[in-house]
Amino acid sequence: MSARRLRQDVDHATSVLLLIAVVAACVTGFIAHVWDLNAFTWHTWSGYAMAAFAVAHVALNFDRLVTYWRFRARQGVRGLQARLRDAPDGAVPAPVPRSRAPSATGGRPAAPGGRRRPGSVTRRVMLTSAATTAGALGGWAVARRIGIENDPVGNDAGMVYHRLSRPGVADAVDAVVTWGRRPAPPKEYPGAPVLDLPAVGGGAAPDGRLLSAVLERRSVRDYSDRPLTLDELSHVLFMTAGSRRQGGRAFPSSGALYPIEVYAVVNAVDGLERGLYHYDPARNALRVLRQADLRDRIADHGLGQSFLADAGVVLCLTVIPERMRFRYRHRSYRYGLLEAGHLGQNTYLAATSMGLGACAVGAFFDDALNDMLGVDGRHEAAVYLLAVGAVAP
Ligand SMILES: Cc1cc2nc3c(=O)[nH]c(=O)nc-3n(C[C@H](O)[C@H](O)[C@H](O)COP(=O)(O)O)c2cc1C
Question: What are 386's strand-pairing partners?
Fold first, then answer.
């Protein structure tokens, strides 16, 4: 087969593949749009294939393109000259393109015998390769920079927000300084009639224990040296996140999908080695992940809030948005945060009802904490800390 015929075959095959890739990109794009898919791999690859075949197509037909547009330009100029001379169009001799068939050398002088010199690289090949490489590297760098990679997490609005809201050192300073004026107090309707409600704790709540917990609940940051007992830890964990025999758990979950995981950094609990544990709600059990003194690390990761090292235990809540994404898509992360809040209030009330103290912590260095927990911060990420301990006298 002659080189020219081979080139024509490749050219035709490229055109057909380009058309197929265009159709695939359109169809997969339509599916991704209608089904609101976060990232649809087939669409991504169709797009890449389309771009690659388009570049190949232009490269293979470069001579023809250049020759044709030169010819059209010359024709236009001559037509204009003819009109200026007020001569009929037909009087202008028809221009002849320099070469209708592309030369095998891409328009450059051929080697003796009309063949391209073996091993020679044309300027066009170099330009095309450089542009393709630069485009691929640029796209890869941008995707890495903004964290959009080829998995569903990349485009999840919640996780993009999550990444953007990670505190750096400057934000840690921000957190202890107050900027601007405090916003207005809760809303009031001065002109509207007021209906006073019955006193709380009456017939509606004869037991009153939950009411006491609500009345006494506060954020406790001063802890005594007394370690927690295993009973206390078990009770706090169950009340925070336990699974009930009759089904369901101690907190509500959108779609009963339960995206929150609970880890316990044990600083001082009787009968337990210091270290990192994972809570298994179904068995109300702990699994040992690491036995080590993590007091300094948890305080450092919590923006230096030293009471995290003094608490008997620090519960670390993480969210796994993928558990909800198939149903709630971009609302998943929002629901995850709301759910973490439910667990947090459970912890507060359980601790208070047992005479213990608790404090929620939302300020922490995400990457460092995730690293300590052994989660990647993308598919599973820390969202909330809950310190629990015996209250200092
Ligand atoms: C989402 C959230 C994040 C919090 N983060 C911190 C924190 O990083 N450090 C801290 O000392 N307290 C933190 N707190 C506790 C609040 O400061 C506390 O609830 C508030 O001052 C009201 O006090 P009280 O809980 O005693 O009623 C947080 C509370 C919430 C709800």
Answer: 315, 360
Residue 361 Cβ contacting ligand 1 at under 6 Å: yes
* Full-model pTM: 0.67
Q: Which stretches of the chain score pLDDT less than 50? A: 90, 96, 98-111, 113
377 Cα to the center of ligand 1, angstroms: 23
* Euclidean distance between CA atoms 358 and 350, whole angstroms: 9
Q: At what angle do helices 157-164 and 332-353 cross, to 10 degrees?
A: 60
CB of 383 shorter than 6 A to ligand 1:
no
Ligand 1 centre to CA of 361 (Å) is 6
**Angstrom distance (rounded) from CA 239 to CA 347:** 7
Number of neighbouring beta carbons within 10 Å of residue 61: 15
Residues near 354 by beta carbon (within 8 Å), at least 6 away in sequence? 232, 235, 236
Looking at the DSSP bridge assignments, the partners of residue 384 are 317
Give tens-digit pLDDT for 8-28: 888 889 988 999 999 988 888
Q: Which of 182, 219, 338 to mutate to test the pocket of ligand 1 (most atoms within 8 A of CB)?
A: 219
Q: Which two tokens stand for residue 283?
A: 């068995």
- Domains parsed from the chain with CATH numbers: 3-148 (no CATH), 162-172+214-390 (3.40.109.10)
* Pair 315, 385: CB distance under 8 Å: yes
- For the Cβ of 359 lying below 6 angstroms from any atom of ligand 1, the answer is yes
Give the orientation angle of helix 332-353 with respect to helix 230-241, to 10 degrees: 140
Structure token digits, residue 337: 């945060």
